[in-house]
Amino acid sequence: MSVSRSDVTQIAQLARLTIADEALDDVTDRFSRILTLVDQLQQVPTEGVEPMSNPHDMTQRLRSDEVTEVNQREALQTVAPEVEQGYFLVPRVID
Amino acid sequence: MNWEVVMGLEVHLQLATRSKIFSGAANHFGAEPNVQACAIDLGMPGMLPVLNEQAVRFAVMFGLGIGAEIGKRSVFDRKNYFYPDLPKGYQVSQFFEPIVGAGVFDIPMPDGSLFPVRITRAHLEEDAGKSVHDAFAGQTGIDLNRAGTPLLEIVTEPDFRTAEQAVAYLKALHSLVTYLGISDGNMAEGSMRCDINISLRPEGQDTFGTRTEIKNVNSFRFVERAIAVEVERQRDILEDGGHIVQETRLFDAENNETRSMRSKEVANDYRYFPEPDLLPVIIDDETIEQIRQTLPELPNDKRNRLIHDYGLGDYDAALLVDSRALADYFEAAAALCGEPKLVANWMLGDLSAALNRADIGIEQCPVTPVALAGLIQRISDNTLSSKLAKQVFEGIWQGQGSADDIIEQRGLKQVSDTGALEGMIDEVIAKNPDQVAQYRAADDNKRKKLSGFFVGQIMKASKGQANPQMVNELLLKKLAG
């Protein structure tokens, strides 16, 4: 299976990646080769095999509903580029 | 052309857990920004989610409450999108294997009938943070307290044809989840948010028209209004020969219109895949049975019981089971005075009017069930006329004591003593010879009207305390001569 340049551009956009124009052909080609490998895997007969959602053959352990975290806002916000009145500030997002 | 409206609803319900769905940070509304957002909620590198047992339990309770299939195995998935209030760049949700499967929820309608709504599924997910767009010059403020709040997203089939049905569903859902105690259901605080999928089709057509989705409508009234304006907008477009664009819209309550959310450059493509940080959740039959044992009596069962055991009408019963507190109040007062119908009338009449005026709920009601039962006893034993009862009710509301205290203080006892009443009647007849003559000369029809004059005079003379039925009886005898 092969993908087009525009597929790659769209996927890059969804992932917020910038791919330089001159790199686009190369990335498209490598994308296509990965998908070829996937196509090959698709041919493995999987009838009667339970879909695997996690490689560990275990089930989820649950946490009891207790508040165990204290307020660490000050410490956590030291790594933020900008904060004001307790808020993280980011470039304006317009809906 | 006649158009049929087709709607399906998605409700995001915040679950009333103490802590977040995947972290031990507190889950309370209204805290200072970011004081309840820990490293996991912030999506710091290396943090791992651990699922909250109570969130799972609440989801199962909901599923059992509507008789849905419970996903004995459910799996979390990542829904990928970028927005600043979603620090990880994905929302942990359940896409392929939800915790609650299909079910049917019966909705009581105002005419007393039941409207069955098919629930497609309900799944667990985490809420995102909040963006504040207008408080900082040229910047957006992010509060991640809400990030990681457990949500149950409840999805229906496209079963709604009218706004009335949609609102009835939301009200029934609200009362179900508050009965179950799995959410506070506070719409103003965003505990219950509704997305409406809506399309029109020519009456009689089988296939659906193109739909739009109105996001995050947060009150029953807004749901009704949003539907009305969106239906009108779509109808206008279709009748002009236009096409509906499938898109997400926002309801603007101030201008009473829906507006397109600036369509994203790329169509929604969430690229769901299984969340590798969480294992499949397995719930065994024994656990499901245990949870079933803890379910309280649910609104539909309670409504049927009130109709059956207390002889209430369908609609009165539906109103009284709206909240557990209201139903408990009713049952307490009815048991005390043995007059369930009078209790229902007072609760749905004067009491709820007074609560509305004071803008408080039944939980804050200054008139206790004991006090209301006391008042009703004095009505049913004829101590109080309904007019006097209203005055006494006011007094109880204002904290002046029990019905008996107030009757005593104000000397409000209804006069039911034949001798005393006869005295008053004689006096009124003596004072108004002209009217008496007129009455005696009149035919039966006119007499009925004329007798009203005398009743009025007697009630006035007794300061409203004369027993009206007895006055009527005695008066007619005396006027007959």
Describe this structure in words.
With about 100 residues, chain A is mainly alpha-helical. Chain A has a domain at about 5-40. In chain A, about 40% of the residues lie in helices and about 10% in strands. Chain A has a two-stranded antiparallel ribbon. The mean pLDDT of chain A is about 90. With about 475 residues, chain B is an alpha+beta fold. Chain B has 3 domains: about 5-290, no CATH class; about 295-410, no CATH class; about 420-480, Arc Repressor Mutant, subunit A, CATH 1.10.10. Chain B is elongated. The interface between A and B is large, with 37 and 57 residues. β1 of chain A pairs parallel with β2 of chain B.
CA radius of gyration of chain B: 30 Å
Describe the global form of chain B: elongated
Q: Structural class, judged by helices and strands of chain A?
A: mainly alpha
Structure class of chain B = alpha+beta
The average pLDDT value of chain B, as a whole number, equals 92
> In order across it, which strands form the biggest sheet of chain A?
2-3
Q: List the helices and strands of chain A in order.
A: HHEHEE
Oligomeric state, counting identical vs distinct chains:
heterodimer
Strand order of the largest sheet of chain B: 6-7-10-1-11-12-13-14
> What is the terminal-to-terminal distance of chain B?
70 Å
State the share of residues found in helices of chain B, binned by percent.
Answer: 40-55%
Name a few traits of the molecule.
heterodimer; A: 95 residues; mainly alpha; two-stranded antiparallel sheet; 3 helices; B: 481 residues; alpha+beta; Arc Repressor Mutant, subunit A; 3 domains; eight-stranded mixed β-sheet; elongated
